[in-house]
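haha ok so turns out i had the wrong file open the whole time. this is the CORRECT one, sorry everyone. sequence first:
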Amino acid sequence: MPTVALFVTCLADQVYPDTGVSTVRLLEAAGCEVVFPEAQSCCGQPAINSGEPEAARRLAQRFVEVFEPFDAIVSPSGSCSGTVHHWYSRLVGESWRARAEAVAARTFELSQYLVDVLGAVDVGARVHETVTVHDACHGLRNLGVSGQPRALLRAAGATILEMSESETCCGFGGTFAVKHGEISGPLADDKLRHAAGTRAGYLVSTDGACLMHLAGRQRRTGVGPIPMHLADFLVRGLP
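then structure:
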């Protein structure tokens, strides 16, 4: 039985704790033993986005220390997992680089780990709903996450109705959404209009930050299907 360390992320911890629980349930359904290192903290992405490399370096080194003992680290966020892969070797300093690269190689987004590492495309969930998929930028571009969530959805019985421009940014972009609302909001509205055009019941993604942004706009405009994290969508169909 593989032992997996859950990297829950700040957003799941503070805003969407049910997504963390859903992630554990899916991993357990796939035959994993899940442990939760309580000393974990932020991956450092907000500090990177805000031009604070020293703060980001301390957080990255902390992440390496906490998760180094584990053979696999899994997160319900392509954004945070992508930060570990894309930034850590450059952030941590020469004396930490080999350790950071080794930890990054064992850090995975949830659908990536289930499909690419375990080969667990069918985790036993059955959810016969119509969905459209938003390809979150960091997961897609830093980790290559695109086909994996779709494979899990199809195996669960979901019907995928692809939207136009599924790979276009939703506008969140971390602190970008706070600093540039006049750009961020219209990008989210465009994404929701594309999703609405499919007539799917749910807008599924692998990144809680994108979903938080899209859900906020969806509540205000009433446009688009219900945004839902892949883990939360699938876990409803577990026995």
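The chain has two domains: 3-117, 130-235.
again sry for the mixup
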